[in-house]
Amino acid sequence: MADSKNSKLDQVVADARRNSDQRELGYREQALKMYPHVCGRCGREFAGKNLRELTVHHRNHDHDFNPPDGSNWELLCVYCHDNEHQRQEEALRGNISTGGKKTDDATFNPFADLKSMMDKGE
């Protein structure tokens, strides 16, 4: 009986992991088509082999909320992504005080002055 329960639990866990991996592949591929391959926090560019280090961060931390316009996603390198989740965990535990101010998820906008750069031909 215990083996039957363990077998069912193992199957449920395996199915959940497979579904999560498939869901992630779907929104990651979409995000990589939508956005430039640049970390939204540190500005590092990615191409070729190191593209695998660029991850999709869910701004509202809900991996099941994947609107087709990509509004809940931002591309972050693995290091900035880990840092963002660590900050979120610490904030939830109350270890970080923001002084009551709302903080932005990303501090760097690589496209902030894109229009003027394009107008200048840079």
Concise synopsis of the structure shown:
This protein has 122 residues and is mainly alpha-helical. The protein has helices spanning 2-34, 78-93, 114-120; strands at 54-58, 73-77.
Cα separation of the termini:
70 Å
Oligomer: single chain
Biggest pleated sheet: 2 strands, antiparallel
Mean pLDDT: 82
N-to-C SSE series? HEEHH
Number of helices: 3
Q: From the alpha-carbon coordinates, what is the Rg to the nearest angstrom?
A: 19 Å
Strand percent estimate: 5-15%
- Read across the widest sheet, the strand sequence of neighbours is 1-2
Morphology call:
elongated
The helical percent reads 40-55%
Please characterize this protein's 3D structure:
This protein has 122 residues and is mainly alpha-helical. The protein has one domain (2-97, 104-120). It has three helices and two strands; from the N terminus they run H-E-E-H-H. Strands 1-2 form a two-stranded antiparallel sheet. The chain is elongated. The termini are far apart. The model has no long low-confidence stretch (mean pLDDT 82).
Describe the protein's topology.
Elements: H1 2-34, E1 54-58, E2 73-77, H2 78-93, H3 114-120
Antiparallel strand pairs: 1-2
Features:
two-stranded antiparallel sheet, about 45% helix, mainly alpha, 3 helices, about 120 residues, elongated
